[in-house]
Design goal:
elongated, five-stranded mixed β-sheet, 7 helices, 5 strands, 15% strand, alpha+beta
């Protein structure tokens, strides 16, 4: 039922109900109901119709209005995200790209390709550039909502990262979307993206495993990759693991991180 139809029903229902009552009263009920009784019943009938039907119509009207307001808000937010994305791309990302070219040129001219400080500076610049590109991509991708196909959105993002960063994700996903709240979807999606970015930045591997399955009390998502001690030290120096901890806390899940036999394992466990 549309917004306009509900408005007309709200306007017409009291009039129609009292009209039907008066018609029945004068054509069928006159021998059985006195004038005084009929006059007393008229406002009661209108009130009863209001309670039974109009309150439901008002609730429907409020729901439609809330959905329209939310749609406008989301549209405005997406437009603003697109604007910020364009500004980042045309400004900071382009400047970082040009700076990278200039640094490479200087390195070749000064024969600094084997200088450890120069190599470290190049890697830092590369990480900043990748972070900026990831931020641009995050702004362009619509936020995950409960009415989206969340699993497909996640798989598409992982495939995009595999292609862009030349690594392979072995994925086993056995959790139904109905088990996730909207908050779970938003936070877990961001956690998996952040974990993969940390692999690109710090781990010396081209192989990642993601194993997600339901448990008797909720669900578990495990992300595993090959690593070494230096990569682990570098990952702990950044903000990536702290971001994972904050997001795990936000969705009410337990986060555990283990390193053993050259493998780093990140596990999210939530009980429902």
């Amino acid at each position: 039922m549309t917004y306009k139809q509900i408005k007309w029903l709200i306007l017409m229902l009291p009039t129609v109900s009292i009209g039907i009552w008066e018609y029945l009263r004068h054509t069928l009920l006159m021998p059985y109901i006195s004038m005084e009784t009929g006059n007393f019943l008229s406002p009661l009938i209108v009130f009863g119709v209001t309670i039974i039907f109009l309150l439901k119509l008002f609730n429907m009207l409020e729901k439609i209005q809330a959905e329209l307001n939310e749609e406008r808000s989301q549209k405005g937010a997406l437009q603003e995200r697109a604007k910020i994305s364009r500004e980042l791309h045309d400004g900071i990302a382009q400047s970082l790209f040009l700076l990278s070219i200039k640094i490479n040129k200087i390195g070749k001219q000064a024969n600094l390709d084997n200088n450890p400080h120069f190599i470290k500076m190049k890697k830092t610049l590369q990480h900043i550039h990748e972070d900026t590109r990831q931020a641009i991509n995050n702004l362009r991708v619509p936020p995950v909502e409960s009415n989206f196909n969340w699993t497909d959105t996640l798989l598409n993002h992982i495939q995009s990262m595999e292609k862009e960063h030349q690594f392979k994700v072995q994925m086993t996903w056995e959790i139904g979307e109905s088990l996730f709240s909207t908050k779970d979807k938003v936070e877990l999606y961001a956690c998996i993206k952040e974990a993969l970015i940390n692999v690109v930045k710090h781990a010396r591997t081209n192989q990642v495993w993601i194993d997600a399955h339901e448990t008797k009390t909720g669900w578990t998502c495990i992300i595993k990759n090959k690593t070494d001690q230096q990569s682990l030290v570098n990952s702990h120096k950044g903000y990536g693991l702290q971001i994972l901890k904050d997001r795990a806390k936000a969705m009410g899940s337990d986060l555990s991180i283990h390193v053993q036999d050259g493998e780093m394992l990140i596990a999210f466990v939530k009980e429902i």
